[in-house]
Automatic annotation (TrEMBL):
The protein, known as: Peroxidase
Membrane-spanning intervals of the chain: 21-41
Entry superkingdom: Eukaryota
Residue numbers annotated as active site: 88 (proton acceptor)
Origin organism lineage: Eukaryota, Viridiplantae, Streptophyta, Embryophyta, Tracheophyta
Length: 344
């Protein structure tokens, strides 16, 4: 941290006398400290650490990994579900496992919950951890670690690093889910909801790459396909790809509930950078994917991240930022014994 030169020269020192000089010096020093503090807020860790449980529960991370791997081996839909679970947890009231709580009017009961899943994986991990180190590992950390481990089964090692030390919150309100970006949002709306959470354009483009795996319900895409009648295709949607989507989701009213389309129509199960190639070809599945191309700076980033090395690096960096949103650390919050219930 480098401040402006604050020391008066020897020649001028004589004039720096009395109260004025002291106030001036105090102001400069204070200003400098404030600048450092502000930069510190942006850069320093909010109380998280890698391997936070090294001493208190040395096997915590390997338990999370082995239970996650076991369950993913039996259900290929889980990596996408767990990744989305972590995103929804962090965006709504911070990464505090509030999304897991079963209480009246909880986050789970809100509209965007429909395809959120993976809760059973978190429960299974928590059960194991409570047997090994009771009351030590937070549900919020389990969510963050399980998302990473589930996606990483496709790779020789973890695709990104996860800081731990989060504690669990006790408030879960459906009314807070308005913090989630809407699938029909335009570019400005998407950027606004990310910046409301302290994330920027780089994070928006990198984290949208999560849509390289997983599925969307027909109801999340039909407005792009029909919009009242069959000739009202979203102009940002490639017409051949639209036909593919229409064949699965024939009509807003006749699509069977629960029918889904792949978010990455090219390599739906691979956590790769083809999402960005798709988006460049107007083959992003959601309107929010297509919206990235409507801003020149975002479109340039989409082009850059089509390179897998750049995508993995950018995704790791932004996941770390996402994992820090409004975390409870130190003596704040609690460690739940059951992830679905406060104080238990
Ligand atoms: C940029 C704003 C975003 C919007 C508007 C958005 C919206 C959506 C929507 C509408 C779905 C499909 C839900 C359904 O129809 O059932 C979905 C699925 C998904 N989203 Fe996002 N999302 C965004 C960002 C993210 C981020 C940041 C992540 C994770 C880091 C993420 C991960 C996922 C995953 C993995 C799925 C598939 C879930 C599954 O297959 O079960 N999304 N998203
Ligand atoms: C999801 O929200 C809807 C209301 O939008 C509700 O009917 C449904 O029961 C919720 N699902 C879960 C699993 O809570
Ligand atoms: C977003 O923030 C990261 C640091 O967290 C920074 O490296 C990047 O340049 C920022 N992106 C934009 C577009 O400002
Ligand atoms: C279909 O929708 C488009 C765009 O909304 C509109 O221009 C057109 O007139 C509509 N056609 C019919 C037959 O309603």
């Amino acid at each position: 941290m480098r401040g402006r030169q604050a020391t008066p020269t020897a020649a001028g020192a004589g004039r720096w006398r009395g109260a004025t000089a002291w106030w001036w010096l105090a102001a400069v020093v204070l200003g400098h400290l404030l600048t450092c503090a502000r930069a510190g807020l942006l850069e320093t860790n909010p109380g998280l650490a890698y391997n936070f449980y090294a001493k208190t529960c040395p096997n915590a991370e390997s338990i999370v990994r082995s239970v996650t791997r076991q369950m993913v081996a039996g259900n290929a839909a889980l990596p996408a579900r767990l990744l989305r679970l972590h995103f929804h947890d962090c965006f709504v009231n911070g990464c505090d496992a509030s999304i897991l709580l079963d209480v009246a009017n909880s986050e789970k009961t809100a509209g965007p919950n429909l395809s959120v899943g993976g809760y059973e994986v978190i429960d299974a991990i928590k059960t194991q951890l409570e047997q090994t180190c009771p009351g030590v590992v937070s549900c919020a950390d389990i969510v963050a670690l399980a998302a990473r481990d589930a996606v990483s089964v496709q790779f020789p090692s973890s695709l990104w690093q996860v800081e731990t030390g989060r504690r669990d919150g006790s408030v879960s309100l459906a009314s807070n889910t308005g913090a989630l970006p809407s699938p029909s949002a335009g570019f400005a709306g998407l950027l606004q909801s990310f910046s409301n959470r302290g994330l920027n354009l780089t994070d928006l483009v990198a984290l949208s790459g999560a849509h390289t795996i997983g599925v969307a319900s027909c109801s999340s895409v039909t407005s792009r396909l029909y919009n009242g009648n069959a000739t009202a295709l979203d102009p940002l949607l490639d017409s051949a790809y639209a036909q593919t989507l229409m064949s699965t989701c024939p009509n807003p009213s006749t699509s069977k509930a629960g029918t889904t389309v792949n978010l990455d129509g090219t390599t739906p199960a691979k956590f790769d950078s083809t999402y960005y190639t798709n988006v460049q070809r107007k083959q992003g599945t959601l309107a929010s994917d297509a919206a990235l191309m409507s801003n020149a700076q975002a479109a340039q980033m989409v082009a850059d991240l089509a390179n897998p090395i750049k995508f993995y690096a950018a995704f790791s960096m932004s996941m770390k930022k996402m994992g820090r949103i409004d975390v409870l650390t130190g003596t704040k919050g609690q460690i739940r014994k059951q992830c679905r219930q406060v104080g238990s």
